Amino acid sequence: MLQVMRKREIAAPAEAVWATVRDFPGIGPLVPPFENIGTTDGNNAGTIRVMKSGAAVFVERLDSNDDKAYIQRYSIPWATVPVEDYTGCIEVRSLGDKRCEVVWSNNFRLADEYVAEFKEMIGEVFAKGLLILSELHAKKSGV
Asked: What is the pTM of this model?
């Protein structure tokens, strides 16, 4: 099983950052170059979103939003790339004093010839998404 993980400290309360993260259908602005091309209604377990980047299409399913632990788990049941058993997790950890850490990680299987490119691409998406999340909350708090 392969894994990619990125984390970032954010100058905002965990509760505020969690409110952004838990919006499964609304993640589009956090994950360039992906575009949300379809979402089922709701923000509960089973909600589906379809993300596209170039010719690559990923069907993502929300598995859980834990509003007490601030953890979102999702999976990719189907994609146009040969990724299998993909599970993702975004966790918001309070650091007190209006600060938090967000950890974005995944586990997946992939044919050997695609591993390096896919891991690099996902790492870049996670890092950029966390930067955008940080900037969004900096604007909200006037920092």
From this structure: 0.93
What is the number of domains present in the chain?
Answer: 1
pLDDT along the chain (143 residues), means of 10: 97 96 90 85 91 93 97 97 95 95 97 90 95 91 60
Residue 43 burial by Cβ neighbours in a 10 Å radius (0-12, 13-18, 19+): middle
CATH of the domain at 101: 3.30.530.20
Residue 58 domain boundaries? 2-141
* CA distance from start to end of the chain: 40
Measure the CA–CA gap between 94 and 26, rounded to whole angstroms.
22
